[in-house]
Amino acid sequence: MASPATAIGDPLAVLEAVFGFKGFRPGQNEVITAVLAGEDVLAVMPTGSGKSLCYQLPALMRSGLTVVVSPLIALMQDQVGQLVGCGVAAASLNSAADPAENRRIVQAIRSGELRLLYVAPERLTRPDTLDDLCRARIDLLAIDEAHCVSQWGHDFRPEYLALGQVRERLGGVQTIALTATADAPTRDDIAGKLFSRPPRTFVRSFDRPNLYLSMLPKANARRQLLGFLAARREQSGIVYCASRKRTETLAALFNAEGFRALPYHAGLEPATRSANQSTFLRQDGVVMVATVAFGMGIDKPDVRFVCHAEMPKTIESYYQEIGRAGRDGLAADTLTLYGLDDLQFRRRQIEDSELPEERKRIEQHRLNALLALCEAPRCRRQTLLAYFGESSGPCDNCDLCLERPQIFEATIEAQKAMSAILRTGERFATEHLIALLTGEATEAIERYGHNTLKTFGVGKERSAGEWRSIFRQLYAAGVIHLDIVRHGRWSVTEYGRRILRGEAAIQLRQDVLSGARPGRERGKAAKSPDLEAADPQLLAALKALRTELAGAQQLPAYVVFADRTLIEMAVLRPTSLTALRGVHGVGEEKLRRYGAAFLAVLAAQPGAVVGRGRPAGD
């Protein structure tokens, strides 16, 4: 591997001067320190935790070039726009740019003017691009959305498979791979495909405590969605749909009800799709109604809600998609609607796909895990984090914590299910165990002699459908464990063994077992204390100025300043450039460009006071 470049300067000083941040977010400092020490790194950090800074800051502390691999042109353009706005020499090579602009960028690579170059994997593997980069001085290769390299990941992209060879072609350059979602098998796959030796691995907590989590079985989906949006007028948000037709139908419905909604799916004309995305990124209060074609890498920090009109594909997909809300750290809401039709649709998608049978089986197990989250008997955040191997207490920020569902004493059912698992050697999947419990003498039951076990028929008082829900809920409660990769085998956890020995009890949800409806989704949108402290008229005036400045430069509004920065301005009311420098997100270049204009708006509003600013932290 090439020798690591020497870092120049103090990371905290660079962080404040360039980005206007007073301190690192949790996990950033450790990763940045490892990168500056020359180590190869695999970083798994939740959306909104500031992954990009983990390669952007080291790039500014070295004299060579950092090459950033990103799968989406829109993401590259957004990040380059933000970096240029902070005074950083950054550019992106992509097919959407004017040929003359791409030639200028290639010349900048050759002359050593750039600090960061964003490039799609398809472009990076072109011989001419590689030739130019091999002649440049590259300090770091950063691979964003690294889960795309793994077939175990939720968004596998074949073009990522060549990146390991690209790394070697560039002389074994130091590499950092980053992703928001990767379980243990996916992490192992990423490390094996991108690195020649094991990288230093960092796995941050998957928790996004600012997100309110809620899930509802469908009653009247249109009415439920409109009720959700009604409490969030003038907010930016995303409504995910399972089909292209559904996005256009719902977008039309929302517009008819007075919302500003735009459809987004792969079947739209490229110009329309691009224009709709641009409107969403650059303007406030737009609802994007989209398929999953929209979203990966979308860097808009002030998305206040994400709603799923239908059940997502997997827990990984769900986590990634809700992670597009609240990236600024302020409160944001999520709602997922699910129903039997969604489950059937997703199962049919898997069965009709061209995936190998083993992969189909894994995807079915992942779908079951998502359904377990929908039917969870306890805090949703506990269940979600447990899926990623992380434990936590009740969050008090989900529907199940705030409105307890109807429950029943289920210790006997749990003991029966675990007995079936243990008596069959922890080697069998759900349907076989349910046949055993209900006393169904299937061919497999008789072949293994399981019809002679004491557990055969011990649960026949319940239907197969009820037992499926019980298994999902026991899984969600951490009583039993599902091995997704190894044929969906069930095993019993230590907590489950305590229940089996009579040392603990378990309660499960009756509503999802019987088909009853749980409580309604809360109508009122969440607000953060800072937002409530800000004067609405002043905040509106600051946003109007931001919109004007962004429009003049053809930039998304948040590239000028994020909502969090404007909220702090409205709360602190700085009256000088020195005081404005203390506001989160105001670096030296943005202070020079925009400081006077925003101070003028602050001075024009009644009630202005002298403000000194405060540490912005994370």
From TrEMBL:
- SUPFAM superfamilies named among the record's database cross-references: HRDC-like, P-loop containing nucleoside triphosphate hydrolases
Q: Is Acetylation among this UniProt entry's keywords?
A: no
Cofactors required: Zn(2+); Mg(2+)
* Record-linked InterPro entries: DEAD/DEAH_box_helicase_dom (IPR011545), DNA_helicase_ATP-dep_RecQ (IPR004589), DNA_helicase_ATP-dep_RecQ_bac (IPR006293), Helicase_ATP-bd (IPR014001), Helicase_C-like (IPR001650), HRDC-like_sf (IPR010997), HRDC_dom (IPR002121), HRDC_dom_sf (IPR044876)
Ranges for domain HRDC: 532-612
Q: Which GO terms describe its biological process?
A: DNA recombination; DNA repair; DNA replication; SOS response
Q: Which domain of life is it from?
A: Bacteria
The Helicase C-terminal domain covers: 224-370
What is the designated name of this protein? Answer: DNA helicase RecQ
Q: Which organism is it from?
A: Defluviicoccus vanus
Lineage here is: Bacteria, Pseudomonadati, Pseudomonadota, Alphaproteobacteria, Rhodospirillales
